[in-house]
Amino acid sequence: MKASGGTRLSSLSAVQRGIINCNQCTRLRVYCQEVGRLKKAAFRNDVYWARPVPGFGDPRARLLILGLAPAAHGANRTGRVFTGDGIGASGDFLMAALKRAGFANIATSQRTDDGLQLNDAYIAAAVRCAPPGNKPLPEEIDRCLVHLQHEVAHLPRVRVVVALGKIAWDSWLKLLSMNGDTLPRPRPPFGHGQRWTHNGITLVGAYHPSRQNTNTGVLTPKMYDEVFSAVRESLRR
Fold it and tell me: What CATH number should be reported for the domain whose range is 12-235?
């Protein structure tokens, strides 16, 4: 997918630097910095990242995983998506599934120096700053979309996008429209396991691995295994 309009940044690393230095959303920047100043008791000795969080993974990835936003004491603390939000929390739940499917070399994601490497996968978020109450405003989601556009422009091999939750799903559809693609009406609805292929890229829906979903059984490891095993099999074709 090529970015339309604006200036195409020279490299993925340049895109990531641009994300880190973004100040488009004052409400989010103030919140992230305040969280980093007050901290959580368990992390009182940590220096929080407290900045926008770029994507992470294999630049030759055929799988793009799109989440919602950094966790206030997870990626907003560590500076890496789905990292450090607690033992067994969303980062570990996701990485364990990716490890089982062969997309990650370890099953946890707690620190940026933990040796985690993604193989054929890249993880990004619809919103790059931790939002209050984990609920970004619609205009914040829209402003942040340019960062995803620029990242995807430097991920030329992507064939499958797994959207973790409805906001991620809708953000991908908005990105297609932003790039000038004509989408069907009504637009493809989000659902766990839902699939929709457009211009050679398959969008797959999956429930977000939040504690609200994993602790209640709305989302189980088996459900993620089914999603990522199917993705792995499709990439073998």
Answer: 3.40.470.10
Which DSSP helix (H) or strand (E) runs through 35?
A: helix 26-38
Amino acid at 194: Q
pLDDT 10s digits, 183-204: 999 999 999 999 999 999 999 9
Say which residue the tokens 């990716």 belong to.
98
Pairwise pLDDT comparison (89 vs 4), residue with the higher score:
89
- Count Cβ atoms within 10 A of the Cβ of residue 135 and give its class: 0-12 exposed, 13-18 middle, 19 or more buried: exposed
- Give dist(CA 83, CA 71) in Å, integer: 9
Q: Is the peptide bond before 186 cis (omega within 30 degrees of 0)?
A: yes
Q: Name 86's Cβ contacts closer than 8 Å, sequence gap at least 6.
A: 74, 92
Q: Largest alpha-carbon pair distance within the chain?
A: 51
| Mean pLDDT (whole number) for 144-148 | 98
Cα–Cα–Cα angle for 160, 1, 233, rounded to 5 degrees: 15
pTM attached to this predicted model: 0.95
Bridge partners (DSSP) of residue 124 are 66
Residue position matching structure tokens 């936003």: 69
Q: Omega of the bond prior to 132 within 30 degrees of 0, cis?
A: no
